Amino acid sequence: TDAEVSTRKKTFTEVQTERLDQAERTVLIKCPSKLSEKKLLQYLSSHGNVKSHFFFENRGINALVEFSEKSSIASLQDAVGIPNAAEHHVVPFKSRLFTFTLKNPLSQPAEETPLHLSPQCHIPVNDLIQKLCLADNISSQMYILLNEYQLTEENIKLRFLACSLVRDFARAYFPDSTVKPFGSSVNTFGKLGCDVDMFLDFHDTQKQATKMKKGPFEMEFLMKRLPSERLATQRILSVIGDCLDNFGPGCVSVQKILNARCPLVKFSHQPTGFQCDLSVSNSIAIRSSELLYIYGCLDSRVRALVFTIRCWARVHGLTNSAPGTWITNFSLTMMVMFFLQKRSPPIIPTLDQLKELADAKDKHIIGGYDCSFVSDLKKIKPTKNTESVDVLLGEFFEYFGNFDFRRNSINLRKGKEVNKPESSPLYIWNPFEQDLNISKNVNQPQLEKFIAMARESAWILQKEDKTQRIINKEPWGLAALLIPFGKHNSTKMKNRMKGIGSETIRSLLDSLKLNNANSQQKAVGK
């Protein structure tokens, strides 16, 4: 049950620390094509115990290998040679990325059992639709989608390794620094293939504070002073960007974007296959990642619904990987969270409720904003809501298809619709920086398109005859929502947008009756 899962769940910080530690004991090996897994592991074990490993495809076969002890890596590095510099001169930076080739390939028998390769990207939507049509019901379809799209254990290890490899560079200048992933790589809502957002962190503040109490002197390092923190960030990222560009094995297409609101370095990390964005410590972004982590861990329906809605939005062109006037995945996720806070009884707590559960160690005041909330999942009471995830999907479309966006804004701190503080078409309060709207970029046409799609989807889910569709070999349930609503629907759509189609009125009345019946049943159930 979900309740059991959450009692076992580790805190966000525990998971991060454990994975960063794992990554420090990990190497990445580009393998020869005819590889005996047994032979490779036998050889590697001569340097120390191999704790775990897996293979994946990325311009050939690669192995991620985690040793039990960090010292095994030094032992392996000692045995590895420098590439022959006949046609290329090399930058002699020794990393944890190696290429293994067979000394005499002909004498090697081919591996009897083929290697198991871990997938590092999700299946195309059309293949997904085929899979969904074989499910028993819409809830099953949603969990199939979640399973196909969510990050795997192996993919997460690869993400933390990419951060750890960048950290090896940063440490040349800043020996105490760490590089940590944030956002979708760690908030439980990342899908296979998403970018790795990472940040450089210099703050080991707790350790410093306790150390400084000792002795008769106030002591501090002499450090270069700059007129603003922003300038310091830009300089640090500029140098580390140059470093990755000039010396980083497998780092290509390095772009420094230093004048952005949040300065960053974008690059492609070929050995792991990830697109990476590196910035300097952004405490509020970490808090957002942890908040979503908590919501994602509390109840399995949360992630099933978010993955479904995001896939649906992508298919209908409501979201886009390029920045623009459309709704972002982050905004969409926050809309789902808000909807789940509004259920009766609520499925997840509001941010204010999480703040009330916080103790002294959960206190976080960042730039004058109170970002405190409980980190221990055991302290959060499981929900009493038993609605199935397919019911929630239909209700989500119904709720936002009829939401008064003109007047109301979405506030996750309170879990309430609040009057809009200003006239942006879509107003979603930033959960931490309370004066910011996270969906300020969204324009009226995009919002109207979202409302139209939500109404259309609610209508399809209500009116659909599953048996008939299966007989006609047509996609049904969630599969029907993941096919772009074609031209033949456009007149129906227009009617529904005006809200004048008699069908629409009837279906709205039906759904009201249904809702009343449901709530009566629930009342009786209690």
Assembly category? single chain
Mean model confidence by pLDDT:
89
**Contiguous uncertain segments of 5+ residues:** 3-7, 490-502, 511-526
Which word captures the global form?
A: globular
InterPro entries: MTPAP-like_central (IPR054708), NT_sf (IPR043519), PAP_assoc (IPR002058), RL (IPR041252)
Cofactor: Mn(2+); Mg(2+)
GO cellular component, one term: mitochondrion
Domain RL: 11-79
Describe the structure.
This protein is of the alpha+beta class and 526 residues long. It has two domains: 218 residues, Beta Polymerase, domain 2; 183 residues, Poly(a)-polymerase, middle domain. It contains 19 helices and 13 strands. The strands form four sheets. A five-stranded mixed β-sheet has the order 5-6-9-8-7, sandwiched between helices. A four-stranded mixed β-sheet has the order 2-3-1-4, sandwiched between helices. The protein has a two-stranded antiparallel sheet with strand order 10-11. Strand 8 and strand 9 form a beta hairpin. Helix 11 packs across helix 12 and helix 14 crosses helix 15. The chain is globular. The protein starts with a helix and ends with a helix. The N terminus and C terminus are likely disordered. One of its GO terms (biological process) is RNA 3'-end processing. Pfam families: MTPAP-like_central, PAP_assoc, RL. Keywords: Magnesium, Metal-binding, Transferase. One of its GO terms (molecular function) is poly(A) RNA polymerase activity.
